[in-house]
Amino acid sequence: MSDKNKNVASTGNTVGKVTSAGGPGFGNKREDGLSGRILLKVSDLKVSYGGIEAVRGISFDVPEGEIVTLIGANGAGKSSTLRSIVGLEKPSAGSITFNGMELTSMGTEQIVKNGITLVPEGRRVFVNLSVYENLRMGAYLRNDDLSKDLDWVYSLFPRLKERHWQAAGTLSGGEQQMLAIARALMSRPQMIMMDEPSLGLAPIIVQEVFDIIREINRQGMTILLVEQNANMALKAADKGYVMETGRITLSGSGMDLAENQEVKEAYLGKARK
Amino acid sequence: MDFLSKNLPYLLAGISVGGQYALIAIGYTMVYGILRLINFAHGDIFMVAGLVLIYSTTVFPLYISIPLTIIVTVILGMSIEKIAYRPLRNSPRMSVMISAIGVSYLLQNLALYITGGLAQVYPTIPFISSPITIGPATTKVVTILTPILMIILVIGLMQLINHTKIGMAMRSVSTDFETSRLMGINVNNVISMTFVIGSFLAAIGSLLYFSNYPSVIPTSGGMPGLKAFVAAVFGGIGSIPGAVIGAMLIGIVENLIKGVGWTTFSDAFTFVLLIFVLLFKPTGLFGEAATDKV
Ligand SMILES: Nc1ncnc2c1ncn2[C@@H]1O[C@H](COP(=O)(O)OP(=O)(O)O)[C@@H](O)[C@H]1O
Ligand SMILES: [Mg+2]
Description:
Order of helices and strands of chain B: HHHHEEEHHHHEHHH
Largest sheet of chain B: 2 strands, antiparallel
CATH class of the domain at 37-124 and 190-267 in chain A: Alpha Beta
Structural class of chain A: alpha/beta
CATH superfamily of the domain at 37-124 and 190-267 in chain A: P-loop containing nucleotide triphosphate hydrolases
Distance between the termini of chain A: 37 Å
Strand content of chain A: 15-25%
Oligomer: heterodimer
Bound molecules: adenosine-5'-diphosphate, magnesium ion
Radius of gyration of chain B: 19 Å
CATH topology of the domain at 37-124 and 190-267 in chain A: Rossmann fold
Strand order of the largest sheet of chain B: 1-4
CATH architecture of the domain at 37-124 and 190-267 in chain A: 3-Layer(aba) Sandwich
Order of helices and strands of chain A: HEEEEHEEHEHHHHEHEHEEHH
Strand order of the largest sheet of chain A: 1-11-10-4-9-8-7
Shape of chain B: globular
Number of strands of chain A: 11
């Protein structure tokens, strides 16, 4: 983790204003020796609800093995972006490729089969199913032995193990968030997307959630993280994008964005009136 | 003792009819559980099952007609969902309900057209129509067979729902379509499955129910369908054990009322019960407390 931060810092001052709909100039050049192969590529994505354009042509990449974060205020279009990646919304334009495969014409089932999973906003655990059954549902598309993965997620979230047979609806908010993440991991995804996992949680639990995010990433998982908690998200992320009303307005390494004056003013509690 | 021997035939009839209502009620309650839809066509599916057996026995022997009836009923239930409800998945619930009412009238009128409005004689199914003596009461085998078969089917169904992957998927879909899709569950297939189960049980129920009646007419599904629906509401719509208990209660009470000699009021009981449930406990016996969708 410490050497990762160093590597990101060494990429220098890469915060750039994104003016056009085109992607930021990251490419997959990395100076740290990691492959940086682009796993997910979003190009000129647009999502509309009726006449309202919630996402107005955004482009970004998620390199394999990295944490990429999308931050922005409420209504910026972050959830719409994640939902269209996993096929819950149909984009009105643009392309989304994963491992080179075009996802926009696929259904959710097929996208999940191809290795993407979403921890939805608001956790959405199956309240009337037990913790164990929720995990089983996470592995719905798998027919192989789950015991190793169960051991793995229970080692990441020991508190879930104690509540194996408890109905998920009786868990605390933090435990439900842990369960939602664990459930997503049970599908053995190549990339996990999380929509505001820290929403509504006590600061100490938020810290725990971010520790887990880092730990999962350290074990090799690619993560696309959407947050309003810009401070925490940018600290954890290799790369960050700032969304405002359907557009990406800033991008850069997590560290650089966290230091960026505009970001600080807008999202890190120093908002100008 | 005298009371019992006098009322035993009615009690037995009640348990039997209750079991038949239960087999229909499960279809209402399962569909509601997953789609929040009252499938108004369900009683008519039950009626169609009766007609299918009648017409198929004119061509095939019973050992072919019975499985054929079950298969046709299941396909009918599944197709109704696919054609009349699925395209309205994202429409307001009222639209789906109106579609269900439309399907109900369609089936009744189709039956009217095919039967020419004439009551169609229901065939005698050997064995289940044979007489059997229990203590002071003489009745048909079907009276005893119904509750036994119903309990076996319900236990099997509960096992399926609580202990299999498809059952887990059904429970997931009933709480959250979208998150179920995120798990890779094919929501449409799971919904089809509930219609398959509901129609299957309605077909079995129809075989048992109509063997007590001389004939089937296009509106034959109306009363048992309505009673099964009230049973499901009473038990807490969405709950399978609730539907079974509600159905048994309605079956037994309406027959005991007949036993007392108030036959005219036996149907009224069901509707008085419905009014009381809606007034005092709208969620029914085991209903979830207003965790409505959307
Ligand atoms: N299902 C929907 N129907 C209509 N408008 C929607 C829907 N979902 C989101 N929106 C609108 O799209 C915009 C972006 O929403 P969203 O993607 O949820 O933003 P974020 O996750 O950044 O808060 C908002 O203006 C929101 O009101
Ligand atoms: Mg959101």
